């Protein structure tokens, strides 16, 4: 076999390696749970988000200017490494520091929940415990990927791969710990939150490159949502009348409309916000009879939703309202 042919085979093999093992560059979304924090904790989270934002800016620069997908031979890989590797390390460092700060804040609050309720025997929190365990495992895997990235001191594409996996795992770990905290803060109320799928299940296996799944909100009962779009507008409010409504969700902190649309209700009926005894309650519909409100309750089919009655913006028991 002559030297030219051997060189061509090596280059082809390298190109195949890159195309088979190079992972996606789009990182998971960074999201914080809608729960209250102390002022000092808010400052820490803000600092963490600034670090992550800086990491994202540098990461996008790498993808646009030094994208490993453009590498076709070892010489190009070496050239990219000299110019881009320092930026890659800096971006990874910013992500690591930012994610660690947020993870520590969320975990501290989760630990405080258990300390506060150690004699209450809180039940129904298996999913929250599972999320915390997954978060811990993800951080451990991220550390292993960072160690691997450091070993590729002269191979930009491979280092990029390992750092991508580490950063993605850290972002997801933070989200999982935050979701666990949200469930703890809800207790003893339980909600069936619907979260976006961060990453495919067989993430970061040796056999298959990691892939980021596009974060698409999960639509709940879309057919039902279409059916109730034509609901008539509620009549002008009469303070002397008892109105029946459907409470779809309640929380100790305000929930924004996009969050409710993604996780609770994605129909077009107006959502009214009521604040009672430290709770933010979200209701839809306004009817003069319990039967009408109950029909809406069945249509939307939202877990934990129920019919409530109000007179002059004050809650009244259903039995009392019926009399």
Defining key terms:
323 residues; 11% strand; 54% helix; Alpha-Beta Plaits; alpha+beta
Gross morphology? elongated
Q: Which class of secondary structure composition applies to the elements?
A: alpha+beta
Work out the number of β strands: 5
Distance linking N and C termini: 97 Å
Task: Give me the number of helical elements.
Answer: 9
Q: How much β-strand is present in the residues?
A: 5-15%
Commentary on this structure:
The structure is a single chain. With 323 residues, the protein is an alpha+beta fold. 54% of the residues lie in helices and 11% in strands. A hairpin with a 2-residue loop joins strand 4 and strand 5. Helix 3 (74-116) runs parallel beside helix 5 (156-186) and helix 4 packs antiparallel against helix 5 (156-186). The longest helix has 43 residues, at 74-116. The radius of gyration is 26 Å and the shape is elongated. The model is unreliable at 3-24 and 200-229 (pLDDT under 50).
Short description:
The protein has helices spanning 3-21, 39-65, 74-116, 126-151, 156-186, 222-227, 257-263, 290-300, 318-322, and strands at residues 242-251, 271-276, 279-287, 306-311, 314-316. It is an alpha+beta fold and 323 residues long. A hairpin with a 2-residue loop joins strand 4 (306-311) and strand 5.
Annotate the secondary structure layout:
Layout: H1 3-21, H2 39-65, H3 74-116, H4 126-151, H5 156-186, H6 222-227, E1 242-251, H7 257-263, E2 271-276, E3 279-287, H8 290-300, E4 306-311, E5 314-316, H9 318-322
Antiparallel strand pairs: 1-3, 1-4, 2-3, 4-5
Helix pairs in contact: 2-3, 3-5, 4-5
């Amino acid at each position: 076999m002559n030297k030219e042919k051997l060189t061509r085979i090596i280059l082809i093999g390298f190109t195949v390696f890159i195309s088979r093992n190079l992972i996606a560059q789009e990182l998971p979304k960074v999201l914080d749970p809608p729960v209250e924090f102390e002022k000092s904790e808010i400052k820490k989270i803000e600092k963490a988000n600034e670090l992550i934002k800086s990491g994202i800016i540098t990461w996008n620069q790498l993808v646009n200017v030094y994208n490993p997908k453009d590498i076709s031979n070892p010489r190009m890989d070496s050239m990219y490494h000299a110019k881009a590797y320092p930026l890659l390390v800096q971006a990874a460092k910013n992500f690591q520091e930012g994610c660690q700060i947020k993870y520590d804040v969320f975990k501290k609050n989760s630990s405080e929940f258990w300390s506060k309720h150690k004699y209450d025997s809180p039940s129904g929190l298996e999913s929250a415990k599972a999320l915390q365990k997954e978060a811990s495992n993800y951080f451990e895997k991220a550390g292993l990927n960072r160690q691997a990235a450091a070993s590729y001191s002269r191979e930009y594409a491979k280092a990029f791969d390992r750092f991508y996996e580490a950063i993605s795992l850290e972002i997801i770990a933070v989200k999982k710990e935050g979701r666990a905290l949200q469930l703890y803060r809800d207790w003893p109320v339980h909600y069936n939150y619907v979260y976006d799928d961060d990453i495919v299940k067989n993430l970061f296996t040796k056999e298959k490159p990691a892939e980021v799944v596009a974060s698409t909100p999960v639509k709940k009962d879309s057919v039902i949502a279409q059916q109730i779009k034509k609901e008539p507008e509620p009549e002008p409010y009469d303070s002397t009348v008892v109105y029946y409504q459907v409470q779809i969700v309640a929380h100790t902190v305000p929930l924004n409309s996009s969050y409710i649309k993604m996780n609770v209700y994605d129909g077009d009926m107006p959502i009214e916000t009521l604040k009672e005894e430290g709770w933010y309650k979200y209701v839809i519909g306004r009817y003069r009879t319990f039967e009408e409100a109950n029909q809406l309750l069945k249509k939307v089919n939202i877990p934990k939703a129920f019919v409530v009655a109000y007179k002059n913006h004050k809650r009244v028991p259903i039995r009392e309202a019926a009399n």
